[in-house]
Amino acid sequence: MNHPSPPALRIVEAMDADEHAGNLTNWQQCYDQTTAGVFHGLLEELQLPGMQVFRESTSQGMRQSCCVWPDALWFGLPYSAQATRINGRTVAPNSVLVRPGDCEFELITPADYTIFGIVVRQDTLHDAAQRLGYVIDWERLRSAELVHASPAARQQCLHTLSALLQPPEHSAAADTTQQAAQHRALQALLPLLDTSVVDPAVRGSFARRQRVVAKARDYLLAHHDQALTVPDLCQQLFVSRRTLQYCFEDVLGMTPVQYLRILRLNGARRDLRNNPARAVGDVAADWSFWHFSQFSSDYRKLFGHSPSADAHGALH
Q1: Which of 3, 23, 27 is nearest to 13 (CA)?
Q2: DSSP readout, 232-248?
Q3: What are phi and psi of 166, to 5 degrees?
């Protein structure tokens, strides 16, 4: 007799932010490290028939560009006390982050951060809501970024997800089938999705600040081999220095100068790891670092080791 197979827990560690970003199954992601120190990431992931459940932990602050698989909805429950930003908006306690599949979004997360995630096929979630008697405004939910949940319901959901992600030898539900695990996760998620507390759309003024930051990022990436300054950006974007500063601090929680440095250092690191045959000095120049000793010093401060160590490590 064939018995239904239990869910298989996948645990993956990484010592590089980009490597860690690529470990989450069926996501398209790019991570930039924003705080100084050696990176360590841990992913605990459970694949179920119509959904994915995971816990992600990162030792350093991150700017994350994320995109979930199509025809799905992602729900994020930050476990850490420090603030998260989604598309520039600061996440209040007891909030649940929401984004549809095939739609890029940005997270800014602090150091020593943990978030629980659920990605569920929309038809799976719709069927479960009908079966369990929940009435949900689907159009409103798909366009939301934040849902404010009751503390008790959110805590119960975290407790359920944590139990599902326990290694089999430590789990009281080691013999749970995939269908039963999915049912438990959906039962914990659906009480959070009361559409009466879906966060309203962003104000027009904040949306404009988001656009300024996005245009600045696109320009910086397109001209990363040029020694761009804040006045250069202001001229290209037709904004004052004060406006640019305010936009970056409000949306990303950092200054344009800080962001420019972080973007360039992460870009250089990505190139070193992806193109180990290239000379470190050439990669540095491609990201407009013209003083090699300063580049090495800044690189070591942010990532905890030298650029040559990354280039060498990519070979193995």
Answers
A1: 23
A2: HHHHHHT--HHHHHHHH
A3: -70, 140
